[in-house]
Design brief:
This protein is mostly helical and about 200 residues long. About 75% of the residues lie in helices and about 0% in strands. The chain contains nine helices and no strands. GO terms for molecular function: DNA binding.
């Protein structure tokens, strides 16, 4: 069974994903997680900033693990888009990426000490995902410099497609980007001998 602290971190990530970083208050996290009242500053002496930073870390590792488990780069790509397709539909297009929410919203010049900490965590999350995607491509035979270029393209296209899909309340942008990235990654890995794992 997860601890109240772990539940709070997961709840914060889920709430940020749907509401954004600014509207996600500690009281909301306590209610969502079912953690005892008054426990927030026991578990997170750094307050809301620490909680949001750890939520970003959780989201970063969760997605990195999902990508790393895929047998091929194409499987990783398909899993990524499939997961978010379901999340968008289940949430009535409210569920975005919590790391993007933090990166976009953590820019208050009056609270640099809080903003900088969250932006650093968001940057680390994106760097981690880029590394995992590039590593998966290298394992499929794509040269490292090219794999890194493709990882940036995949990550930025994926995140952008989510934003467009949420705004339009339509999966079409996600589907189009997925189709084009499938063709690109398929061509890159087939030319190097990489193959999709049998289903």
């Amino acid at each position: 069974m997860t601890s109240p602290r772990e539940r709070m971190v997961v709840s914060a990530a889920l709430l940020i994903r749907e509401r954004g970083a600014h509207p996600t208050a500690i009281a909301d996290v306590l209610e969502h997680s079912g953690a005892p009242r008054g426990s927030a500053y026991h578990y997170f002496p750094g307050g809301r900033t620490q909680l949001l930073c750890e939520a970003v870390d959780y989201a970063a590792e969760f997605m990195a693990a999902r990508l790393a488990q895929a047998p091929t780069a194409l499987d990783a790509l398909d899993g990524l888009f499939s997961d978010y397709r379901k999340q968008l539909q289940r949430s009535d297009f409210r569920a975005g990426c919590p790391v993007v929410a933090v990166a976009v919203e953590a820019g208050d010049p009056a609270k640099r000490e809080h903003s900088d900490a969250m932006i650093e965590r968001a940057a680390a999350a994106f760097a981690r995902w880029r590394q995992v995607i590039a590593g998966r491509l290298v394992a499929d035979g794509v040269p490292a410099p090219r794999a890194d270029d493709l990882a940036v393209l995949v990550l930025s296209s994926f995140e952008g497609a989510i934003v467009l899909a949420r705004a339009a309340r339509d999966l079409e942008p996600l589907e189009r980007v997925h189709t084009h990235l499938q063709a690109l990654i398929g061509a890159e890995t087939s030319s190097t001998g990489g193959k999709r794992a049998p289903r």
